[in-house]
Design goal:
The chain is of the alpha/beta class. Helix content is 40%, strand content 20%.
Length: 179
């Protein structure tokens, strides 16, 4: 059962290359950043970064430069089915959101890996909601959305946990203005 006073803010990182992936490789989840926020008092309950060992792809030098995740770190991480079990055990069932359609990326990766879905509550695309609230006709980035609400980016970009924290910060700024 969903807990209506909680929201999980999620960001994922995937294997990536400068240009097209090498033959036989696909974009795979390599990290989850999750922030668990109590929506009634806007207090962060916990935050966690989970690394995931890719099954088909390698971490390219481009990917390491972008995300900070090294091949050695990825090789030491558990596979996606184990990470999903840990996420479900740690965070339970709550609604969750991301900036964009990370739900599709997660679903595709889980299907490919034979893993369950990590999040059982309703999904919310905060980028679509912010775009509608601001009356925009284009997709804005999380960095621009933060700026529009007077917030600076915190942490390294393309770091799953830093991105999830910034997403939660944006939500809190929106909530504070609406209350």
């Amino acid at each position: 059962m969903s807990k209506y006073n909680r929201m999980l803010f999620v960001d994922v990182e995937l294997t990536c290359w400068e240009g097209n992936p090498p033959a036989g490789e696909v974009s795979e989840l390599i990290a989850f950043g999750i922030v668990d926020l109590k929506t009634d008092d806007l207090e962060v309950r916990r935050e966690k970064m989970f690394l995931v060992r890719p099954q088909v792809s390698i971490i390219s030098p481009f990917c390491t430069t972008l995300t900070g995740i090294t091949p050695k770190e990825a090789e030491a991480a558990p596979l996606l089915p184990e990470v999903v079990r840990t996420i479900r055990k740690t965070f339970g069932q709550s609604d969750w959101c991301a900036w964009g359609r990370d739900d599709s990326l997660i679903r595709e990766s889980c299907e490919r890996a034979g893993a369950e879905l990590p999040f059982l509550g309703c999904f919310h695309d905060l980028s679509a909601q912010v775009r509608s609230l601001l009356g925009l006709t284009y997709r804005l980035g999380l960095d621009e959305a933060l700026q529009r609400f007077g917030l600076d980016w915190e942490g390294p970009p393309h770091d799953a946990l830093a991105d999830a924290k910034n997403l939660a910060r944006l939500f809190m700024a929106l909530a504070e203005r609406l209350r």
